[in-house]
UniProtKB/TrEMBL annotation:
It comes from Serratia rubidaea. Residues 1-105 form the Aminoacyl-tRNA synthetase class I anticodon-binding domain. GO terms for biological process: glutamyl-tRNA aminoacylation. One of its GO terms (molecular function) is ATP binding. It is an enzyme of class 6 (ligase). Belongs to the class-I aminoacyl-tRNA synthetase family. Glutamate--tRNA ligase type 1 subfamily. Keywords: Aminoacyl-tRNA synthetase, ATP-binding, Ligase, Nucleotide-binding, Protein biosynthesis. SUPFAM superfamilies: An anticodon-binding domain of class I aminoacyl-tRNA synthetases. This is Glutamate--tRNA ligase. The keyword Ligase applies. Signal peptide: none annotated.
Amino acid sequence: MAAACRYFYEDFSEFDADAAKKHLRPVARQPLETVRAKLAAISDWTAENVHDAIQGAADELGVGMGKVGMPLRVAVTGAGQSPSMDVTVQAIGQQRSLQRIDMALAYIAEREAQA
């Protein structure tokens, strides 16, 4: 159980290979950039405000929550499964979440360059 929750208390340097292959594709760049901007703008870091940022990104892009939530889940947890994203991102913290999204965006850019 502790290993499944490592992303809450320990940084990671690699994403789960299967989850990254499926969800950190070039098509995920725009959703991640959009949700990152919305998360960065939150001044009161609560699960409700995180949820509103994720939903706002999906609404702005005209896509379902999964198109934003799944790349975000892999970005902030390194894996394809986690508890609800609003609570997970809130618990991980704003700065750490933003840093992990940046790492995912760099991963996507590297995939684009190799294509």
